[in-house]
Design goal:
Oligomer: single chain
Order of helices and strands: EEHHHEHEEEHHEEEEEEEEEEEEE
Largest sheet: 7 strands, parallel
Radius of gyration: 57 Å
Helix content: 25-40%
Number of helices: 6
């Protein structure tokens, strides 16, 4: 990479504003690289740069993008356009870091600043008005002549104040009363809703406890007679109300009796032998009178709200009741 210098006369250029001609001298430095002998390329590069500088300045003046008075200060901003117009890269030469300065020549005689003005001088200014405006200025600077109002929101309250009336205390009091009323109504409504919910839940619980009393015992005598071969699991479900009597059952696996939902089942003089004798869940009620129940795993199991009642029954095996379910007897 080589360093080079460029300089010489530029112009003359036509000044669109004054209509005259203007010339100048430019000088600067640049960096270049070239294929082959760089010393032979330098004069050609300098010539191309001077042509490009003249062309760019002439174009800028003709299009009124620059004035004669600002040409010197504007030239450094046109270096990229000047390098583009050089077209040195087509010859294998790359020019960069172009730094330029322009000194304009003095205008020729007869072309310069216009002649000085020779007309009459303007009249002297009128005398100062003294204190003519002093009272008006004092009135404008007196704070008592102005009424400033402010509205701000603090903690949910709208605070109104002014330099004339001060703080609006009455308005704040009314807002406080309204807010208290609103809160009382809101809490009262919430308490009412809570009371309704609790009453509903209490009713549901009372109904469930009422149904979990001993309705099976009351209805046992009225149950419909059912048939069972004693070889497979007997199921009582839904709203069934049935009675088994005098059956001898032997079940190899699982539960001999399964009662679920709202089943009401009465076993009278029934003999059962199984891994689980009686299994009750949901709201089922099973009443066992006499007979025998033998379970290798459990004689009876109860869950949910189920209830199993043994009366005069021989029970062999453990009983398992998960609260609130219950197993009573024998």
């Amino acid at each position: 990479m080589q360093q080079g210098q460029v300089g010489g006369k530029v112009g003359p250029f036509t000044d669109p504003a004054m209509g005259g001609q203007v010339s100048g001298t430019v000088h600067g430095t640049f960096t270049y690289t070239a294929t082959g002998d760089t010393s032979q390329s330098l004069p050609w590069v300098q010539q191309q740069l001077m042509l490009a500088i003249n062309n760019v300045l002439a174009q800028k003046l003709a299009s009124q993008q620059v004035a004669v008075q600002t040409m010197s200060g504007s030239l450094p901003y046109y270096t990229q356009e000047i390098l583009a117009q050089c077209q040195t890269q087509q010859a294998g030469v790359t020019v960069s870091d172009l730094q330029l300065q322009l000194q304009l020549d003095a205008p020729p005689p007869g072309q310069g600043a216009p002649a000085p003005y020779g007309g009459p001088l303007p009249a002297p200014p009128p005398p100062a008005p003294g204190d003519a405006f002093t009272p008006g200025a004092k009135n404008r600077l007196d704070p008592s002549n102005y009424n400033v109002k402010a509205k701000i929101k603090v903690g949910g309250f709208n605070v109104n104040a002014s330099t004339d009336g001060g703080l609006d205390v009455d308005g704040l009091g009314k807002q406080a009363v309204d807010k208290v009323k609103s809160n009382v109504i809101w809490y009262a409504g919430g308490c009412l809703v809570l009371f309704i919910v609790l009453a509903g839940v209490g009713g549901i619980i009372a109904y469930a406890l009422y149904n979990s009393g001993s309705p099976a015992t009351a209805k046992a005598g009225g149950g419909k007679a059912a048939a069972w071969d004693g070889k497979s699991t007997f199921e009582c479900k839904g709203n069934d109300n049935v009675k088994l009597e005098g059956v001898t059952a032997s079940i190899a696996s699982g539960s001999a009796i399964k009662a679920s939902a709202n089943c009401r089942l009465e076993l009278s003089k029934v003999t059962i032998s199984a891994p689980v004798g009686i299994e009750a869940g949901g709201n089922a009620k099973v009443t066992v009178n006499g007979g025998a129940v033998t379970g290798s795993e459990a004689a009876a199991k109860a869950s949910g709200l189920a209830k199993i009642t043994f009366t005069g029954t021989t029970v062999t095996g453990k009983t398992d009741a998960k609260a609130p379910a219950s197993i009573t007897g024998p």
